[in-house]
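Hi R.,

Here's the chain you asked about this morning:
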Amino acid sequence: MELFKLMTEGGHEQIMYWSDPEFGYRGIIAVHDTTLGPALGGTRFWTYETDAEATVDALRLSWGMTYKAAITGLNLGGGKSVIWGDNRRADREMIFRAHGRAVDSLGGRYITAEDVGTSPDDMEYVSMETEHVVGLNGLSGDPSPVTAFGVYQGIKASAAQHYGDESLKDRHIAVQGLGHVGYYLCQDLASEGAKLTVTDLDADSLNRVVEEFGATAVDPDAIYAVDADIFAPCALGAVVNDDTLGQFSFDIIAGAANNVLADSSVHGRALTEKGILYAPDYVINAGGLVNVYGEIHEWDSERSRKKAGEIYDTLLGIFELSASEGLGTHTAADRVAERRVAEARHLQRTW
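And here is the predicted structure, written out as tokens:
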């Protein structure tokens, strides 16, 4: 793995490895860009095949956080951390306290929060070692409801763009991934009368959504071929790839997952050619970042929810730029985010 080449190509400022063998802690913190403010991004706890895979995941996710903050109008940079291990382990205190010490060593350049495989309870352990953590119990807590609300508003904006009508009543929506965000998204969609087809690897999560919202369940591999209007990926990334593209009959792809396009330059263009409207992932799923930003600045929950609702107008602006300049929506979103970071570089130094 050519680490400095990866960092240079992605424009990353810093990457840090931290190990505490006594507790089985292996952590990686990637800081992408701190032009707009301190880097903020959650901690992902995942079983990676190799340290190279873990590193690439941290780099990709931190890049996305920079763009997410910039395009949402937040004064934050982008960072992300990953813990390499089994996120089902029960003895969590010492591993997350070790992670807290790693975060604290950066002196505020990086602020962490929960992500895939972690929870507000885990962040409580992190907070024992550092003040640079958000998403704590009793404060902003679980960002999932706000994230889901932002995705819901983004789906409505996408429907308005494609169909000329934002209503989701009787729209058929295929939802992949029924974790916290996926569950709350289904709740929002069902409340408007959408028809839901859903899938998840966890049978309990799947059965809960089927029973509560009248959804239809399908096997995980079958979700890509569902004859639905909208596909909402809410699990892990790279689900738009060479193998899945040929199965799609959707009009819109808009969901909460990060890094939905396996290769943005290839698969973003392919969606455009197929006439599928794509809501760029780091735009539509920015509600979670809004939620923890609100905690830093002591916003109440209603203000955070209102800010997440602005994703609707942000996406309409991106769709307009995409149409006027003949760009893929993913490219249009990148240009908006990059413009804000470039302009800010003239105003202040990196955090």
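One quick note: Residues 144-339 form a domain with the Rossmann fold fold (CATH 3.40.50.720).

Cheers,
M.
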